[in-house]
Amino acid sequence: MISSSPLEKNIKKLQQYVNDSIDAKYRDYSFSYSVKYSYLTEQQKNSVTEFEIEEFSNKLMLFVRKNRVLKQIIHDIEKPDFLWEGSFVECLSGEEKKTYVEYDFSSFNILEFIKTPSLYDETLPHLSHIIDYVVCIRYLKYLKSLIKPEKPQKPTNYQFVEPQKEKEHKVKVREESTEQDFGAKFEEWEIDLLTKCINDSRIFSKTITSETMNEIFFCRLKFPLIIANGKNKLLAYFFTSLDDRSLIIRNWQSLCERKTLFQSFSGHILKQNDYSSNVYSNKIKEPKDCHIIDKYIKQLTKD
After folding, report:
1. pLDDT band for position 154 (50/70/90)?
2. 146, containing H or E segment
3. Under the phi-then-psi rule, with left for phi > 0, alpha for psi from -120 to 50, and beta for the rest, what region is 187?
4. CB-hemisphere CA count at 13 Å for 276?
5. Rounded to whole angstroms, how far apart are CA atoms 119 and 235?
6. DSSP letter assigned to residue 5
7. CB atoms within 10 A of CB 111
8. How far apart are CA 204 and CA 226, in angstroms?
9. Roughly what angle, to the nearest 10 degrees, separates helices 127-146 and 42-66?
10. 3-class DSSP state for residue 87?
C-alpha cells in the first residue's frame, strides 16, 4: 500500500476544516438574510434581494481579481476534496508548498480557524480567501432562489388580435429564445470531436470535457472559462469557423458577452468588442495553430 506524502496528508486534513468553516459562514449569511427577508413586503422582496445579489457579485469579482490562486481553481470547488484533487497544490509557490508540508498542527485551533480563518493567512496561505469565495458562491445561489419570476400579464382584448400580428409575435419570441444559446444542434460524436479540437488547440488554461463543451453551447457554465495566454484570437477563430458554416447563431459575439462565458488570461471577462477585434485581426493574419481547428472542422463538415 502506497503511503500518502506529508503534503497530501496535511492538505486533506485541512479540507475538512475548510468545509466546516464554509458551512458555518454560509449558515450565518443565509439565516441572517432569511430573517430580514421575512419582514419585507411582497413588493420589496425581489428588489431588495436583487440589490444584495449585486453587492455580493461585486465581492465575488474582487475575490478573483485579487487572488491568483482563485483564478485557477474556480472550476474545481464542486469537487468534495478540491484542495487536493483540484489545481490548488499546483498553483502554490515552492515556498508555500513547503509551508503546508511542514505545518505544525499542535498550534492549530480548529474552532478559531472555522470562525476566523483569516487569522491563519500567514501560516496557511490562500485558505481564507478560498473559503470566502465558496461562501459567496453558495450565498448567491441561495439569493437567486428567492427571486420570484414576474407573472406575465394577460393580453387585453385578445380576441381582437389580428392573425398577422399574432404570427409576428410568435416569430419574435422564437428569435429571443434562440439568442439564449448558440442554437447548435450537434450530435454526441460531434461534441466529442469539437472537445478534442479545443483541447488539442490548447485554447483554455485547462483541458475540458464533452460535458463542458455542451455547457458552452447551451450557456450553462457555472463560471467563465479561462482562456490560455495568447489564445484569444484562436478562440475567436474557432467560433468564426462554426459561424461561417451556419453551425451556430450569427450573433455569437454578443451572446458570449451577455452570458459571461470566457475570461482572458489576464483576468477580464471578454466583451463583444474583444471578439470582433480578434475576428478582424484574424482576417488580416490567421492566428497560430489555426490549422488544428481547420483539421477538426473539416472532419465535422465532410459528407
Report:
1. low
2. helix 127-146
3. beta
4. 9
5. 41
6. P
7. 10
8. 6
9. 160
10. coil
240 backbone dihedrals φ, ψ, rounded to 5°: -65, -40
Give the separation between CA 190 and CA 213, rounded to whole angstroms: 10
Three-state DSSP at 151 gives coil
Grid coordinates belonging to 17: 476544516
12-50 as b/e: b if 16+ CB within 10 A: eebbebbbebbeebbeebbeebeeebeeeeeeeeeebbe
Q: What is the pLDDT of residue 214?
A: 93
Cell 480578434 belongs to residue: 278
**Residues facing 58 on adjacent strands:** none
Which grid coordinates are listed for 52? 444584495
d(CA 81, CA 86): 8
* Nine-digit cell string for 80: 468534495
Choose among 20, 18, 126: nearest CA to 73. Answer: 126
Per-residue DSSP letter, 227 = B
Using DSSP's 3-state secondary structure scheme, residue 204 falls into: strand
Q: Which residue in 27, 227, 188 sits closest to 115, CA to CA? A: 27
CB distance 89 to 96 below 8 Å: no
Model confidence pLDDT, tens digit, residues 252-271:
999 999 989 999 887 788 99
Neighbours of 267 (CB within 10 A): 13
The whole-angstrom separation of Cα 175 and Cα 283 is 29
Q: What pLDDT does 69 receive?
A: 87
Cα–Cα–Cα angle for 59, 60, 62, nearest 5°? 65
CA distance 96 to 90: 11
- Comparing 103 with 156, the larger pLDDT belongs to 103
Nearest-angstrom CA–CA distance, 157 and 40: 35
Q: Which residues partner with 217 through β-bridges?
A: none
Round to whole Å and give the CA distance between 73 and 65.
13
pTM: 0.51
Give the type of residue at 40.
L
